[in-house]
Hints:
Elements (H helix, E strand, L loop, with lengths): L9 H7 L5 E10 L2 E11 L4 E5 L6 H9 L6 E6 L2 E2 L10 E4 L11 H11 L4 H14 L15 H13 L5 E5 L7 H18 L2 E6 L2 H7 L2 E6 L2 E6 L1 H6 L4 H6 L4 E11 L2 E6 L4 E6 L8 E6 L5 E2 L8 E10 L3 E8 L3 E8 L1 H4 L7 E5 L5 E5 L3
Parallel strand pairs: 3-8, 3-9, 6-7, 7-8, 13-20
Antiparallel strand pairs: 1-2, 1-4, 4-5, 9-10, 11-12, 11-14, 12-13, 14-20, 15-19, 16-17, 16-19, 17-18
Bound molecules: adenosine-5'-diphosphate and magnesium ion (MG).
Adenosine-5'-diphosphate binds next to strand 2 and helix 2.
Amino acid sequence: MIARVDAAEEPAVRARTGGYAVTLRGIRKQFGSAVAVEDLDLDVRPGEFLTLLGPSGCGKTTTLNMIAGFLTPNAGRILLDGQDVHRLPPDRRDTAMVFQQYALFPHLTVGQNVGYGLRMRKRPKAEVHVRVAGALDRVGLAGYEDRMPGQLSGGQQQRVALARAIVVQPKVLLFDEPLSNLDLKLREQLRLEIKHLQRELGTTSIFVTHDQTEALVMSDRIAVMRAGRVEQLDAPDTIYRHPVNAFVAGFIGQSNLIPGVCTEAGPDGCTVRLTTSDTLRARHAGAVTEGDAVQVLLRPEALRLGTEGAAAPIVGRVVEIVNEGSLATVVVEVSGAVRLRVSVPDPGALGLPAPGDDIAVSVPPGAAHALPADR
Ligand SMILES: Nc1ncnc2c1ncn2[C@@H]1O[C@H](COP(=O)(O)OP(=O)(O)O)[C@@H](O)[C@H]1O
Ligand SMILES: [Mg+2]
C-alpha cells in the first residue's frame, strides 16, 4: 500500500523531507514477479543535477518513469517539493522528460512540437510564440520554428526535444539517456551544452545514463545503481576516490581490482595479503576487519613504474603497452595471473618499457583502497 499525505499534513512533510525537490522513499516496482526497483530511497536537492548511473536493466528508466507518473510504484512514496504526487497524473506533476528517441511529433513543425505543452496548458498564442522562440534560442536553434523534424539531424532533433522540455518551465527535468543515439563528438558537445543550460535555468534535473564519463562530467551527484537499488550516492569525485564497494569501483573509471585477505585492520588502514602473495597497506572506509575477503582498488594513474623507494614493490612482467600519445597504459602481469594496468603520463618524455620486460610497480602511500569483496 502506498502511504498517502493529506493536504493538511503538507508543511510537516516538507519539514521532514528537508526541502528536497524530489524525494523517493522505499520505492518498489515489480513487473509480474520480476522486481525492477527495490526499496529505493533518493533525495534530490533543489537545482541539483543528479545522475542515475548503472548497467542496462538496473532500473533507471523505471525509476524515472515513476517520478514522471508514467508508472505507479507497488510500494513507497514520491514527493515533489514535499508534496506526495501519488494521485497526480503525469501532466499535473510539473516534470518534463527528454527521451533517448527524441519522441517528436513527425507531422508537426519544430515550433508546434516545442509549443505543444504550452498549448495543452491553454496559454495565449502570443505567449506561446515568444516562449517557443526563446526556448529554441537557448538550445541554439533560433529561427527553426517552421522546419519539420525529419529535416533535422539527430543532434538537432534532440535539441528540439530539450527546448520542448524547458519551455514549460518544469520543476524537474528528467533525461532518459538523451545522448545515447548520437555519435561521440556530438555527445561530448551536448553534454556540456545541457550542463550549462541546466546551470543557467537552475532547474532540478535527474539524468539517466549507463555512461560513466557522461555521469562524471555532468553531475553534481551520482547515484550508482545495481539491480534496482542505489549502491552509492555521492559527488563524482567522492565516487571516484572513495567507492563504497568493488561494484562501484569497477563501474566508475579505470580500475585494478585485486582479491586478497585482510590480515590486520586498524583505524588508519589495513594490511592485505593479495592473491599474488604481495602484501600491502591499504586505506579502508571502516567496513573491513581482520580475516575479511577484500578487493584492493588500485587506480592505474595512482601506480608508478619502478621502485621509487617503495618498501615492497609488486614485481611482474610487461605483457602489453597501449600508447595513446599523451598517455600510455602499461599492462603488467603479476604471478602469471593478475594483470595490473599502470598509466604513464607523457610517455614520450618518460620512456616506456617493452613487452617481456621484468618490471617493478610501486604503490605510493594512500594509493590502495581495501573494499569489501563483492557480494
Ligand atoms: N514494462 C515492463 N515489463 C516487464 N519488465 C520490465 C518492464 N520495464 C522494465 N522491465 C524490467 O525491469 C528491469 C529494469 O528495467 P529498466 O528500468 O528499463 O532498466 P534500465 O533503464 O536501467 O536499463 C529490467 O529487468 C527490465 O527487463
Ligand atoms: Mg533505460
